[in-house]
Every structure is written in structure tokens, then in C-alpha cells.
Amino acid sequence: MLQPVCVRLPNWVGDACMALPALHLLSRAGYSLVLAGRPWARDLLAGLPHTDFIALEGPLRRDAQRLRDALHPGGKGLGTPYRGICFPDSLSSAMVFRMAGVRAGGYRDDGRSLLLGWPISKPKGDLHVVESYHYLAKTVLQRWGHQACLSSKPPPTLDLPLTSAHERAAATLLERAGLRPQGFVLLSPTATGRHRGRIKAWGHYDALARALQNDGWPVAICPPPQEIDAAHQAAPSAQVLGALPLGAFAALTQKAALVVCNDSGTSHVAAAAGSRQITLFGVTRPERTGPWSPRALCLGNDEQWPDAQTVIEHARRLLSQA
């Protein structure tokens, strides 16, 4: 029987995808995963083997109670702390684990050392987020006495496993929309929030959509319900598809000939699914948060967005190879 380890997932979709190599490392070390995180992560990570899921929705005390109830049903075993790993750097995430009887490894940030069973110092150097999460998992496993199967670096792909339900949901959506697999371009023109006060979304999706449509490519968007208006405004000529849970959306990105998106959750979901994509940067750094995939092309940087013609030309080149 596999020994369980409780994992506090990151709070953002992209970060949850970038934690996948660390999760795979824990599985290879012989652990079953009890994943604790935002409700949307249940569907996204449903294909991971030997995995249970606990939804955390706040507030802090209620989340601690949810964890205690799930990990120690009937109040049994409260004297034996669960082992865990806490990927978020926040004080509250470490506190929830401590209150729930989970002795966790995690980074020392935010004065958390006293709450962690295995406080880990962050490595020197400017690592990609994928590398940072992988380093944390590897170092905690070493503290637990594991040495075998601990590669020093994460693999070049995120390897999100998709379920048959994910595949069916994506295929059904395309059939209803009259689109064929590998016969359309998927745009994701929105990005929530700002980065240091700057808008995180590229401003020329309408020009890109119309150029590709003139080339004969159907162009679609599949935003979550709360982003439909913003996505339609950014790319008004694109076909709007119905919203999908994240795992099914990952399957949808696989079925597109090309995904074009901002540095956002979509970029990392597409990378996790191994989809062909272009990710556009203008306020964030590709070397820190870029898609972890050999099939991803990054255009722009943290100081300047790429111009419309550059993106159109690269999209056409990639589509000619589809």
C-alpha cells in the first residue's frame, strides 16, 4: 500500500500546472497524493494516478477543519501527523496544514519556519517556477530519506494525464461547434489582474483572428463564464465556444492546430497538455514563467509586446506545419 502525502497545491491555474513535475516526482518516490487546493484543480488533475482531492475554499479555520475531517475521518489518527508538502509560500497555507495535523515541507518565506516540519531554504539563482517547485519536492524527499529516482532537474515536459471524460467533453464541444480536430485555431485573449500595474493581455487579437480567418482558418475562443465579455471584445470575429472544466479545456487545446495566448493560465494548461502554442509576453519574463514545453514559442519580453505582424507571421509558419 502506498504511503499518502498531503500536497497543498498552488492557488493559480498556471502554477498548478507548473507543479506537475514535482507531483510526478512524489509519485515515483512511492507516495499516493492527497491533493488539497482550489476546487477547479479537481478536474484539472483528475488523471493523476493514486490521487485523492480535498477542496479548500476558505476561510482558514474552515479549510483546516476540512483537511482534518478528510485526513482523519471520525477523529482517528490525530496524534500521528500526516507528511505533506506546501507549494504556496504564504503564511496562511502553512498554518492551515499545521492546524490540520499535517507536518509539511515548504519554503521558509513569510516567517513560516516554525509552522513547517521541514523548512527549506530557496535555492540561489533565478529559477523557472517549474524548477523551483521541483527543487522543493526533491529536497523534501531527500530530508525524508529518499535518494533513488531523484533527478536533479525536471523533465522538459509537464505531462498532464487526461481522462477519457476530458477527451469526450472536448470532442463533443467541437462537434457541436462544427469544428474538426487540428482544423481550427484557439485564442485565449484574456489575462486576469495586472502585473506591477500593467495589463497582462496583448492588444491585437482581433487583427490576428481576422488575418488567420482570411487564410481559411476557423478561429475560436473558449473563455470561462466570467471572461466571455472581455474575450469577445478582444476578438469579436472569433467563434465563442461553451466553457469547459480545466481538464476538458486541456484536451481542447490538444485538438487545436495552434493555441495563441498571453502569459496566463491557458499558456500553462496548453503546455501541460503538450499542445502547439504561441505565448505572448509584454510585462512578464519568459525565462521565469514561460510555458514549460518544447512545442511552445514565446514572443515578446517583460518590456515590450510583439507587434501584430510578427505574431501573424509566426502563426502562419506554425500552421503551415500542422
- For the record, what CATH class of the largest domain applies? Alpha Beta
Overall helicity: 25-40%
Instruction: Please give the order of strands in the largest beta sheet.
Output: 3-2-1-4-5-6
Roughly what is the average pLDDT, rounded to an integer?
93
CA(first)-CA(last) distance: 44 Å
Number of strands: 14
Element order, helices and strands? EHHEHEHEHEEHHEEEHEHEHEHEHEH
Strand content: 15-25%
Classify the oligomer: single chain
CATH topology of the largest domain: Rossmann fold
How many helices?
13
Radius of gyration: 20 Å
Which residue ranges are poorly predicted, with pLDDT under 50 across at least 5 consecutive positions? none
Structural class: alpha/beta
Q: How many domains?
A: 2
**Major beta sheet summary:** 6 strands, parallel
The general outline is globular
CATH superfamily of the largest domain: Glycogen Phosphorylase B
Q: What is the second-level CATH architecture of the largest domain? A: 3-Layer(aba) Sandwich
